[in-house]
Amino acid sequence: GKRISVYKATISLAETALQNAGSPKPTLFSFLAASTAHMIDEPIDEELLPGDRLRYFYPMQLDETLDSRFKTIAKLGFGGGSTVWLAENLKFKRWRKSSGPRYVSIKIPALDTNASGERMKSKLIANANPSHEGLSFIRIPIDEFKLQGPQGTHSCLVYEPMRETLFRFQRRLPQQRLALPLFRCYIFLLLQTLDYLHTECRLIHTDIKDNNIMMTIENDAILTDFANHYKKHPQPRHVRTEDGRVTYLSEDDFGSLRGNGLLPKLADFNISFPGLVGDGGHLSAIQSHRYRAPEVLLGCPWSYSVDIWNLGLLMWNLLEDVNLFDRPAGEDGEYDPHVHLAQMVSLLGDPPRGTD
């Protein structure tokens, strides 16, 4: 139909726009740089989290086989509630699509985090309307499994690997801005995702920003080269003297761009909210400070429109590489919603009067 044709044309335009974007800036660090496995003398990554959080994280080893299917290659990242690992799919068959991709990224949540909510939302998103084009630009798990650790069972999620965040991708481009043709294509695709989330899934993302939009990997050879490098040169690690526990230093730089097939996918639905029936709205505090919508600042009920506000601010940042509301802070340097609201009024004028 006409909608499918527009969708395909947008993908083609995005690829053309990337070709014409000029020579992207190299990243500061490249996995192709010479490196050797070495020991680190001080705590790193999740070891630095406050309290005794480390014991809730699974003590992964490189070359470990998970669920009899996935062999770990490198640690891609960590956060307050999980670690993420690149792994090789041991069941991969090039001629059989159902075997899944050759390489996957596996998110292993800490035991003191609630991973069930993320799984439930992912299933809702995957099954609401699989024929909708917007689903293609939402990052959801392709598999899941349980992993028994020394402290309990971890509910792991398996994803297709992504290159990097939209924030990092933008830093590579000339003047750190998206060219207008590329900008139009990406925003069109993101609007498709919001249409799917809001109308089919009845979900409000609540945290749309460049760090929660992932870019696809443009060339399969990138993953192969990355994996081969870390098979020969294992990542640096720290070993605790008291119990011998190993923590690896994460690395997620896949090197310079090698093609033009990068497309955005909306990710991170941990704090998404269900849309309420009728005119009902939520009252919870949401959104990053600079991306906070007026109704959230004022403590008013909010709904799907907060995602549209976020998208509008993101659009500005992609074209200008500056925040529309810069440093809304008080005299103490801390975020101040009054200053933020004053910036909105200064830029947009007085808000419309309410009705009695």
UniProtKB/TrEMBL annotation:
Keywords in alphabetical order: ATP-binding, Kinase, Nucleotide-binding, Serine/threonine-protein kinase, Transferase
Record GO biological process: regulation of mRNA processing; spliceosomal complex assembly
Listed GO MF terms: ATP binding; protein serine/threonine kinase activity
Protein name according to UniProt: non-specific serine/threonine protein kinase
EC number(s) reported in the record: 2.7.11.1
Taxonomic superkingdom: Eukaryota
Protein kinase domain segment(s): 70-356
Native organism: Tolypocladium ophioglossoides (strain CBS 100239) (Snaketongue truffleclub)
PANTHER family attached to this UniProt entry: PROTEIN KINASE DOMAIN-CONTAINING PROTEIN-RELATED
Catalysed reaction, written as an equation: L-seryl-[protein] + ATP = O-phospho-L-seryl-[protein] + ADP + H(+); L-threonyl-[protein] + ATP = O-phospho-L-threonyl-[protein] + ADP + H(+)
Gene3D superfamilies: Phosphorylase Kinase, domain 1, Transferase(Phosphotransferase) domain 1
EC main group: transferase
